[in-house]
Amino acid sequence: MKMSTQRVVLVTGGSKGIGKAISAAFAANGDTVIINYHTSFDEANKVKLELLPGNTSVSLERADVSDYLQVKRMVADILEKYGKIDVVVNNAGIVRDGFLMLMSERDWNDVIAINLNGVFNCSKAVSESMISQRNGIIINIASLSGITGLSGQANYSAAKGGVIAFTKALSKELAPFNIRVNAVAPGVIETEIVDSLNERVKNNFLNAIPMKRFGKPDEVASVVKFLASPDASISREKLFALREDSIDV
Ligand code: NAP
């Protein structure tokens, strides 16, 4: 096992949409990027080939984030190859929209399993090595739906609301180990998830957006990249200095 000198970044669901843009943003930064996917090997491999010409290392990891054993194996494999994981972006997600009366138990369970349990599984699996490193960044992709709640998305709103609460709790738990945990809650972003919505629903969303346009995956990726950068943090030294100053006052 060789300890990577570059930052090692795992992006779940990095094969498409927002995850693809996030993978590209970290690769452009010179980080080692691991693209996790579940079923879309061809897309994931295409992203890898697109990013490889840059001065960076990109690899693929297949795992269903809703399955803890698969996630544990994926994390062990990355640690074996690179010696550490610096950043995890919990991005993998699905929608199975429908009014509650018509929502199947399966549509409820799948959305909770991937969007919420997936975040638990990946965060738990990386937390041990991040705690030992005394260093790490976890960024969870939530959604506006998890803040406001949206009609026809009881499952998705519940999962994303859960991700936001989970993020708050975990940020408190892991802060003493120098691990930052944040969530990003995008509005409607132009990806396959949005392509799958019918025109009436898309128009309703557009009408509610003051800019009258959907967001772009790159716009979410910029926020994620910032949250993973030193600009979004304060060094331990500066923090201790600030604490000492405030004690003097
Ligand atoms: P997308 O284009 O449909 O991509 C979803 C990604 O998640 C794919 O790479 C997919 O890979 C992966 N994935 C799905 N199930 C998985 C599983 N069980 N294990 C591992 N990977 C899995 O979706 P997106 O719009 O980019 O959404 C990305 C994230 O942003 C999601 O968490 C979504 O809820 C959130 N979000 C999206 C929007 C929006 O408007 N698009 C708004 C707010 C939040 P496979 O195909 O290989 O399964």
UniProtKB/TrEMBL annotation:
One GO molecular-function entry: 3-oxoacyl-[acyl-carrier-protein] reductase (NADPH) activity
InterPro entries: KR_dom, NAD(P)-bd_dom_sf, Sc_DH/Rdtase_CS, SDR, SDR_fam
Domain annotation Ketoreductase: ranges: 7-187
Biological-process GO terms, alphabetical: monocarboxylic acid metabolic process
SUPFAM superfamilies: NAD(P)-binding Rossmann-fold domains
Signal peptide range in chain numbering: none
Alphabetical keyword list: Oxidoreductase
E.C. code: 1.1.1.100
Top EC class, one word: oxidoreductase
Origin: domain of life: Bacteria
Family: Belongs to the short-chain dehydrogenases/reductases (SDR) family.
PANTHER family: 3-OXOACYL-(ACYL-CARRIER-PROTEIN) REDUCTASE (PTHR42879), 3-OXOACYL-[ACYL-CARRIER-PROTEIN] REDUCTASE FABG (PTHR42879:SF2)
Annotated protein name in UniProt: 3-oxoacyl-(Acyl-carrier protein) reductase
